[in-house]
Prior knowledge:
Strand content of chain B: under 5%
CATH topology of the largest domain in chain A: Rossmann fold
Low-confidence stretches of chain A: 367-382
Number of strands of chain A: 21
Order of helices and strands of chain A: EEEHEEEHHHEHEHEEHHEEEEEEEEEEHE
Oligomer: heterodimer
Radius of gyration of chain A: 25 Å
Mean pLDDT of chain B: 85
Distance between the termini of chain A: 40 Å
CATH topology of the largest domain in chain B: MetI-like fold
CATH superfamily of the largest domain in chain B: MetI-like
Helix content of chain A: 10-25%
Order of helices and strands of chain B: HHEEHHHHHHHHHHHH
Number of domains of chain A: 2
Strand order of the largest sheet of chain A: 6-7-8-3-9-10
Number of helices of chain B: 14
Largest sheet of chain B: 2 strands, antiparallel
Strand order of the largest sheet of chain B: 1-2
Helix content of chain B: 55-70%
CATH superfamily of the largest domain in chain A: P-loop containing nucleotide triphosphate hydrolases
CATH architecture of the largest domain in chain A: 3-Layer(aba) Sandwich
Mean pLDDT of chain A: 88
Largest interface: A-B, 26 and 21 residues
Radius of gyration of chain B: 24 Å
Shape of chain B: globular
Structural class of chain B: mainly alpha
Shape of chain A: elongated
Strand content of chain A: 25-35%
CATH architecture of the largest domain in chain B: Orthogonal Bundle
Amino acid sequence: MSDANDFDVEFRGITKRFGDVAAVNNVDLQVRKGEFLSLLGPSGCGKTTSLRMIAGFEQPDEGELLIGGKDAVGIPPYKRDVNTVFQSYALFPHMSIIDNVAFGLKQRGVNKSERRAKANEALELVQLSHRADDRPTMLSGGQQQRVALARALVMNPRVLLLDEPLGALDLKLRKEMQFELKRIQEHVGITFIYVTHDQEEALSMSDRIAVMSHGVIEQLDEPRAIYDNPKTAFVASFIGEMNFLTGTVTSANDGHWTVDAGVGVPVQGVGAAPLNEQVKVGLRPERLVITPNSDEAGTNRVLSTVLSKMYLGDQIQFVVTLPSGATIVAIEQRASVDPATDNIKPGDRVTVSWDAHAPLLLGMVDAQTANNSDTSTIQEKP
Amino acid sequence: MTVDTAVPTPEATTSGVGRRRSFKPRYPAWLALPSLAYQIIFFIGAMSILVAFSFATQTGFNQITYGFSLEQYKQVLDPTYLGIFARTLAMAAGGTILTILVGYPVAYWMARYLGNNKLIALLLIIVPFWTSFLIRTYALKIILDSHGYLAQTLHVDLMYSAWAVGIGLVYNYLPLFILPVFSSLERMDWTLIEAANDLSAKPFSAFRQVTLPLTLPGFVTGALLVFIPMTGEYVIPAILGGGKFVFIGNVIGDAFNSAQNPPFGSALAISLMLALSVFVVIYILVATKEERFGS
């Protein structure tokens, strides 16, 4: 058991209800000092409510909330050592950029020359010193975003909360800001809690990601582990693309398991599995290898028919029909495949294969969903 | 109070090869003539008569000699009338402050906490305005009367006091203050208050530094909208003040009606107008500030 002071923020069984709906449902969470933690999930998953409880804008109905090891329940936002970067920026329109950035220091009674110096320093960090005397409306969205960041950072908080801060920016600017945010976080060393529904944003910046759904944390882990070893079907489908197969576990020993996912589709994977149970198996499209003209089927080798083929420039995306009737998506890197793959046409017979580390066991299938999920589903993320 | 001077119409932006914005007027200017004629005849006309009256002299019963005499204005500067001017402005200022104290919290509550019921509340505030001003003031007199409910049950007898006049002023002018303040508070982005609290500002401090400056134009509009007509008030002081708190409006009314001295009444009215112009200039200076924030 680690000491509470190791964590900048800690949730202990926190529940927050709005009417009958539990927006956050009995959540435990420990945010380490200095880490970049993302709360990732679709809208309504409870990520923003969690953030607002840390900021003090909402109070939990149940559970304990600790900030810096101290009970924070009931403490108003203006007394908390956390600051927020709002999705809408929330810059004060009647104040200049420098006054916006210096606002918090002014509330703390820092004298004018010192707060101007600190505000200027913060503006330098976000490369906006030259706009210090302008009004927020004169700045572009990306610049306003950086002012909002400077305004929060200048307070040197224990934790910086970011509520989908890049949501309103266009794609190119968003990519630049992702890089910029990570650079700044490493520079200042402050704990960042970052709320987003964009898996790519979370994967590229975070030290750890908490994937949320329906008010609970489905999985909390490093980005690579979240991607490579999703623990639930929700996490597997929300992060990246995933093919799902359903079948019965036919063998499970010596750290290997086999699932019969329909006629001609024996799937073998690594790990433990519950024998004779119906389970969900995930296969990432990029882990599948398509080879033309092969007749050797076997474990993790399936004969299939190409349904469609799409060039994505550097990649080719195939949709193939398995002998079981299910369709799955396979993505091949054009630089790494046999040139013959380029010539595969829809209707061709091909072999789809994968190595034993590719299949992911994503939990048991309950009786209700088992009836209609014999075919695999294709999940694509925006 | 933003001034939309150059909003192009959709047609103007989409037509034309270069899609250049056209700021040219789309309708001939003479279409404004009927309204202008009305303004000239009834507004400027009446004002001109007042100005002419104020420089005239009363030469006998219902006898006016026109000319350029400053006689009436000299009389206005008499300490008696200056005192009434001062009292009028003081009472109107007091009434305005009371109106702000009563109206601002109501407008704030409506704008921030009422959600979908805002319009119902707005209606409830406007509905009394649909009854006659005079009838409402007499109704208020029944409440404030020494034999009325307030005096008999709560032993608060305010009748014919400065407070009665103040209550009458607030009651009658409150909607004129609430409406503009509500409309500017309604456009307020409350995330800014969360941001201020997040940046260590306590609730009142956040209000003072963020809400108040951002809604100041509505606040000033409301304050002047009640202050200016209050200075010209004569019904409320007559009914609720029992003649003890004479406003300049009462003196003007008397000059025209009972004293039959239109030149003096006109001089008083024009002096009052000049004094109020000062406040209007302040209003314009503050209200046009909003343009710089955008809305």
